[in-house]
């Protein structure tokens, strides 16, 4: 049910006391059991004033109940970068495109049971657009889900692939950089204390040397790292990631990585800044986002080169005190591969499309048909020559989440239960394979939690 501001005030009366800067929780049970569901629904679907107020309340409720937006930087630099964590684990970074609050609740439920805190909830620049989830919305979904389940600890929210468009950049570099800065600022102000910068689209393999190939990549990564350090909240060192190989392109090499890092460090120093550098590096190992659909709609097998992750990760830790290499486009890989990521000491793995596929596999046929017809009517210009209808639907159905957001949110309870049970089974398998159960002890040791209170909106 969507509330207006007067109804919100009535709803929280006796349970939440609002102060100038923060809130006081008077009835935690009622907040978790009743109020938070109404606030998050209003925060997504209410009028602008009610949205603002609901989001402010959710953020403050989360802070009071110790679910705190956090940066994973110190764990990556001081724990993984110095290889002091003991048995290795690979941090899952999970992109949630639809049913966001419900799916996040399931993750937090597992996290509490398994004392697991090393997981990231993320959304990419492209996903923000087609799922109709701005950073503020995504962040409050995460915090509301944590509150609902009773999770206490760091909530790692990440901006994934804040990516440069090569054509736009080479036509007007400053304008493209400015647009990425604006998104980054919006994200950090929303509680995203983990940002993956991605100018890897600007790498030019026609140049003769690795340094020249990576020039625009490391230049803009340095500029954005410096910008982030200027705007990050006091007491927070935002975790920043870089990328050397555009996902879907050729496999990365240690030499490319070293050329990128040397250019990056030199450029940061030229700005006269003594600041924390990036703490991880995304590389290309042979995968492609979403997988490669075959004419019948099934996904082709991928030859993934684990040695890329292992070799570049080793250089990253030994020479640059970083956590290691990051794997993208992994959720559609065969199950039998996931245990290998901790074995080669990959520091992070990004997972998205596989969860999307589970949702689509369980939604009612009528809704699926409605979405697919919408895609064919509105995105026909993206239907590549030679694609079958199955290939088109597989690649484009991610764009159904935004226009049909409310229908996904309001699916019947029995349908939701089937979807969430299937997702839970997949989450538990992945978390076990990636060795992240029991990792609360590591965040307790390395992560300092800083409460950043949002500005109260005028009612």
Question: What structural class should be given to the helix and strand makeup?
Answer: alpha/beta
DSSP strand tally: 11
Q: Which percent range fits the helix content?
A: 40-55%
Terminal-residue CA separation? 20 Å
Strand content: 5-15%
* Number of discrete helical segments: 20
For the record, what is the CATH homologous superfamily label of the largest domain? Aldolase class I
Instruction: Kindly report the average pLDDT value.
Output: 94
Give start-end ranges of low-pLDDT stretches: none
- The strands making up the biggest β-sheet line up spatially as 4-5-6-7-8-9-10-11
> What's the level 1 CATH class of the largest domain?
Alpha Beta
CATH level-3 fold name of the largest domain? TIM Barrel
State the domain count: 3
Summarize this structure as a short list of keywords or feature phrases.
459 residues; alpha/beta; TIM Barrel; 3 domains; 8-stranded parallel beta barrel; two-stranded antiparallel ribbon; 51% helix; 11% strand; globular
